[in-house]
Input
Amino acid sequence: MKKKTTLYLVQAALIAAMYVALTYLSNMAGLWEVRFSEALCILPYFTGAAVPGLTVGCVLANILTGCPLWDVVFGSLATLIGAYIARLLHKKSWWLAPWPNIIANTIAVPLILRYVYTDVSSTYPALVGLIFASEVVSAGLLGYVLLRALKPHTQLFRGA
Output
């Protein structure tokens, strides 16, 4: 197994901290499922440290915002899967960066809403559509803006 460098650990910790802070900011703004933190899910394009960073950040954000245990577990698992697949695809094309996260959350979050929060106010297809739309805005649009801003500075991620 490859030895993790100090830079890798620092990047992962910073990504986790940013994820928590941006989730709190989204909650304070009264946004339901449009988490600003989802834009960070493009970071596996730049560094492998984003995979544990996003996962730990999601775990902490869900715990600190009072989510039930099953939301913490399965929501964080969706983030882990999305980040891991995004990292696997990072050499293919930059435009693929947010899509694993969008797809993972579009599959997981409606199930979490339905079975953990027992949300029966909407049909399952309506929940899927709502979550897909919110992920396209937060991870897709905001993620692409972040990706374009970071792309000229890829040297910041080297060595991790």
About this structure: Helices lie at 6-28, 50-64, 69-88, 99-115, 124-150. The CA atoms of residues 4 and 80 lie 18 Å apart. The mean pLDDT is 90.
